[in-house]
Amino acid sequence: MVTVYNLQYTSMFEYLKSVTYEVSNLAIIFPIYGIIQSFCEEFAWRGYLLPRMCKIMKPDKAAVLNGFLWGVWQLPIIMILYMKVAENPLNGAVMLLIMSTSVGVIQSYLLYKTESLWCPVLFNLSLNIINIYNPASIFVNVAAGNSISHVLPGVVGMAGLVIAGMLCYRESKRVYVN
């Protein structure tokens, strides 16, 4: 009912059409696309580049640098997509680099411990789903990209990811990578 009110549907048919579209995206299209996208991204960053970086530096340092470079790689497209809706694009860029570095360390640690690329792939997919379908944009009529729509995954989630990243960094020092 909140969706009907917020989006001002004029008929039950429009409402059902919208719900069907969203459910199909959530249940079918996004997971398939998301797994392919996450796998390709993780294959390149954690499956290909990270092991090569570990040959020239320690695994903990390689994980941090890999995460930071991953953030730099994402920065142009994020800035293009959110330039018009972000109140302060520079703050968004800094937050992206902090979060990408933290997430990169976590994903690297997952790869080190499980020796499987699927664990970082599923972690990446989970974060993408949280970013697209976050609580504020689902339950409140807030435009995607608005700073309010990213409060839960942004502020609270980022703090948790930074702490988890620091713990994984500490544990990565104990990992042997050949």
TrEMBL record:
<dbReference type="InterPro" id="IPR003675">
    <property type="entry name" value="Rce1/LyrA-like_dom"/>
</dbReference>
<keyword id="KW-0645">Protease</keyword>
<dbReference type="InterPro" id="IPR042150">
    <property type="entry name" value="MmRce1-like"/>
</dbReference>
<feature type="transmembrane region" description="Helical">
    <location>
        <begin position="121"/>
        <end position="144"/>
    </location>
</feature>
<protein>
    <submittedName>
        <fullName>CAAX amino terminal protease family protein</fullName>
    </submittedName>
</protein>
<dbReference type="Pfam" id="PF02517">
    <property type="entry name" value="Rce1-like"/>
</dbReference>
<dbReference type="GO" id="GO:0004175">
    <property type="term" value="F:endopeptidase activity"/>
</dbReference>
<keyword id="KW-0472">Membrane</keyword>
<keyword id="KW-0378">Hydrolase</keyword>
<dbReference type="GO" id="GO:0080120">
    <property type="term" value="P:CAAX-box protein maturation"/>
</dbReference>
<keyword id="KW-1133">Transmembrane helix</keyword>
<dbReference type="GO" id="GO:0006508">
    <property type="term" value="P:proteolysis"/>
</dbReference>
<feature type="transmembrane region" description="Helical">
    <location>
        <begin position="94"/>
        <end position="112"/>
    </location>
</feature>
<feature type="transmembrane region" description="Helical">
    <location>
        <begin position="150"/>
        <end position="169"/>
    </location>
</feature>
<feature type="transmembrane region" description="Helical">
    <location>
        <begin position="62"/>
        <end position="82"/>
    </location>
</feature>
<keyword id="KW-0812">Transmembrane</keyword>
<feature type="domain" description="CAAX prenyl protease 2/Lysostaphin resistance protein A-like">
    <location>
        <begin position="25"/>
        <end position="129"/>
    </location>
</feature>
